[in-house]
Structure formats: structure tokens, C-alpha cells
Prior knowledge:
- By secondary structure, this protein is α/β, with parallel strands linked by helices.
- It is built from 14 helices and 8 strands.
Amino acid sequence: MADTTGFTSFDVTVDGVRIHGTRGGEGPPVLLLHGFPQSHVMWRPVMRELAERHTVVATDLRGYGESDRPPSGEDHYGYSFRAMAADQAGVMAELGFERFAVVGHDRGARVTHRLALDHADRVEKLAMLDILPTSYVYEHVDRALAQAYYHWFFFIQPADLPERLIAGDPLYYLHRLLGSWGSGLAAHDAESLAAYEKAFADPEARHAMLEDYRAGATIDLEHDAEGARLRAPTLVLWGEKGVVGRNPEPPTEVWRRHAADPALVTGRPIPDAGHFLVEENLPATLSALRDFL
């Protein structure tokens, strides 16, 4: 486990939702956003390194980790990427950062995308790890993607069907998820895994995570259809061995269509990695982030 001595935990309430996180370092601010089914602790190996030149802020998305789990509403807006992005913009404002860089992985990368669209005046640059745009994924479903991303279609089933099925053995299911998209469960260190297990043991947390996916298949697509484009320098990273890396169209080219100027988007594969870039190839991921930030 990376040494994160000198980082300070905090809780910031934004519009009634408490967001938990940690901060440390000095320099230009960078916000780190985790994915499913993780929390901000996934970034611990990265935080200490980036803190040598940056003020690093890492948070738990609403519904995840130690952050609040508010109601989603009938339209799932409560777990939309727009709502999650507003949380993070509010956190950074409360911490005194008017403009900042954002790095997101998985669902956190989707929040990063929305944050850069809805708060373009606040985001100086953004890095998105191992995702393609949500709308693109749903528009290009084939057999291979459906097999790899089966959980996207399982999680969006009406409550409480997936909730009840997962409740049969949540720890087993969590381990299967974490061990299915990379080099296996062993890629996750014991301390991080314990944090994920603690959160996933909470039925309210599991419901919140599913609401995140339900929003992704409904109201998030409506927001994407508004047509906003990225206007900040954008780095796209993906695992060479993962689903995104096997996409027939290069991920960088896909993301360039979502930018106001295609030249804003650069990208590269991370070798010897599947979905969990930080856990599977930390040196290459850190190098790419340092060069960009």
C-alpha cells in the first residue's frame, strides 16, 4: 500500500449530500474519481506520486465508499452523471479550487466527462481511463460487448430484481467483478479490497451503485443528446488487453468526435493491462498522467 501520510480526510456537503474524500500535496489541483465497484482508495498508489507536484483531491462518488447514498428519484436523476458531477464541482469550490484537472476511471471517468461538459469553465484538462462514451457503447452493442459488459444490462433491470439476486452472496459477486476485468482479484491490495467489501456489504450502497447504471441507460443518454462537446485538453487511456482496447475503432478516434476540436484529444494504450490500469500497470499509467498533467 502506498504511503499517504500527509493526506487529510474530509467530508463536504453539497446540496444536502455529504461527499467523503482526502487531500494532500501542493501545486495545481487535480481531482481523482474512482469507478465501480471501488472508492477513492483505488488511487492511493497514485496520490503520493502526484502530490509531489499537485494538490491531490480524491473523493468517493455519491452512493459509493463513505459518501452519502441519497434517493435516486423515479427518473434516476439522483445518480446521473450530471448530479455526480455537480457534487464534485461543489466539493472543489468548497476546498477553494476554482479551476482544476480531473482524472477519472470507469464510472468516475463518465462523471469526469459530464463534469467537463457541464462545468467547462472549471475543468482545465481531463483524463479518462478505460471508457468509451456511454452513448457510443449503447449504440454499438454486439455479442462480444454484451458478453463483456453483461452487468450493464443486468444492473438496469427494475428494482429490486438485481438487488435481491446480488444479496444472495454479495461478497462472492464483488470478488467475481473485481477479478473479471483484469489480471484477477490479486491485482487489488488487501487494504483496498477490504474497503470495497465494507461498502458492498451495505444493501443501500449496492442499490445506489445499480441506480448509477440505471441512470446511465436512461437520463444520462438524454443529457448526452444535448450535444455538448469537450473543450479542454483530454487524455484517453485504456488497457491494451481490455474491452476498450479491443474496440474495432480506436478509442482516441471515438473521443475526438466528442470534442469541439479533435486536436484536443490524445490517447494511448497501457500495455499489459485490462480494465484496472492503476492496479495492473501503475508505472505506465503514472507516466502517462504525469506527462499530461
